[in-house]
Amino acid sequence: MVQEHETFTPIVLSTTGGMGRDANTFFKKLADRMSRKSGQRYSEAMTFIRKRIRFDLLRTTIIALRGERGIKSGSIVKISDLDIN
Fold first, then answer.
1. Which class for 35: exposed (0-12), middle (13-18), buried (19 or more C-beta within 10 A)?
2. Alpha helix (H) ranges present in the chain?
């Protein structure tokens, strides 16, 4: 696959919800495209994106601090039993 004139911009977010300049630009473009496609207002699309990002950041921060509290599988795999190749 050949791609010309492409750039990669990482989206940098802090755990408190702050975002870098490039991330902010990305979310503005995303909100603009979402609002045009769905017919909703730009402010509603940006609010949806910001809420979604904040809840996802909160969830991942809580998981990092407390650990996953889902249903635990009964089977434990030993590291020595794993096949790397």
1. middle
2. 21-38, 42-66
Degrees, nearest 5: CA angle 65-68-74? 145
Contact 19, 11 (CB under 8 A): yes
Amino acid identity, position 80: S
Which residues are bridge partners to 11 per DSSP?
Answer: none
Question: Three-state DSSP class for 20?
Answer: coil
- Name the DSSP class of 19: B
**What confidence tens digit (pLDDT) does each residue in 22-51 have?**
888 899 999 999 999 999 999 999 999 988
pTM above 0.85, yes or no: no
Answer yes or no: are the C-beta atoms of 56 and 45 closer than 8 Å.
no
